[in-house]
Amino acid sequence: MQIFKVHNHMIENRVREFREKLEMTQTELAEAISVSRQTIHSIESKKVIPTIEIAIKIGKVLKIKLEKLFFQSKKEMH
Question: Where are the alpha helices (DSSP H) in 1-78?
């Protein structure tokens, strides 16, 4: 699955927070959306942002709207 590398932190995410609330491991989330555990780790540590397809899948599995999972960093907003 293709992911987009981020060179700044304009996009924040709360994937880890919502995953942990469901007591789900990175591996379980990865398997549920057909990506590697390393991809989930990279998303959670903000090294990459997922494609819209992957973001939607994460939202469905975690039962969270995308705007709660992914949002523009307030420090980057003008």
Answer: 15-21, 26-33, 37-44, 52-62, 66-69
Between CA 48 and CA 21 the distance in angstroms is 22
Tens digit of each residue's pLDDT (9 = 90 or more) over 6-22? 545 578 999 999 999 99
CA 6 to chain centre: 13
Q: Give the three-state DSSP class for 2.
A: coil
> pTM of the prediction?
0.83
Query: Cα–Cα distance between 74 and 52 in angstroms, integer?
Result: 21
Q: Which two three-digit tokens encode residue 23?
A: 């007591």
